[in-house]
Amino acid sequence: MKLIHLSDLHLGKRVNDFSMLEDQRYILTKIISIIDDEKPDAVIIAGDIYDKSVPSVEAVQLFDEFLSRLHQRGLMVLAISGNHDSPERIAFGSRLMSKSGIYLSPVFDGAADPLCLTDEFGTVNIFMLPFVKPSHVRRYYPDDEILSYTDAIRSVIGHMEIDSGARNILVTHQFVTGALRCDSEDISVGGSDNVDAGLFHSFDYVALGHIHSPQSVLRETIRYCGTPLKYSFSEAGHTKSVTVVQLFEKGNVSVHTVPIIPKRDMAEIRGSYMEITARDFYKATDLDRYLHITLTDEEDIPDAIGKLRAIYPNIMKLSYDNARTRHDAKITGIQDCERKTPIELFSEFFEKQNNRPLSEEQSSFVSGLIEAIWEEMS
To answer: Which residue numbers in the chain have pLDDT < 50?
Structure first.
């Protein structure tokens, strides 16, 4: 059985206020071409179909078009909701769609029944687990101690009836400990959303979503396929791909990737304003790319982004790297916090951030504000 593993389409996403719909339509067509070449039996979409829980009309129409193209090819589709999706909206119409081979994850209700498929090697059980938090799981398994994301996923898997003699696949959308993150992902403070990869030992393949960089965790068959497009400049050096999974007899799984090239790539360039606007420089640059430009001039250039956009129409982000910005970035720790008053702490922070002390007027305003806050709290 051959499967295409996708995730994190984030349909309707805007990056630095640029709509990505045109790029997403382009890349979905490229994925269809890969599917035509690979001829899989099914397509897995491991969550974050949309970028918002209430997606735009255009995003919904684009996903509808993609599903229709997959259905026209006689393909089975298995899609779950991610943390960006509304599980109720993803589940809408799922019972009707399943009759056409489009399986959408229901809202998590404690059930963990697999979808059972067969091929020449026997049964393949596919468990579809949408994004869940510990609070979601705790209400259905009150007797289990569920304090963390790992506890939650352990509890759900523990209630699955897994046939160890058959081949088993888990489709889920979580952050597995050890995966490398990107700036475009939602990050929980302190890694509180971590899930231990050791929980997945019963599965022949784990189709993961949530992390935007394609990678395997712990073993080749616990895999994030990554996003089909780059959604932050931390991904500028990544090669995006489609993951192809082939299951043979029990214990024999092969995984390979097929690169996908976007309509517009992302890149970062740096230099002085005169260097970057020189004809020889921009003639050698792909002007259609989405760009993060870092200027090294010591003085700010008036309306720099407007002027640069006349040459580089898809500039998304402008930064400066000079003595001032490097100094501003170095805000060292404030000493003896416990022995200082709130106004002393704020004044010291303000001076370190702005390279000048508070004025008398500012100091008076902050003092009054702090006193008012303390009165409300007392």
So the answer is: 189-190, 378
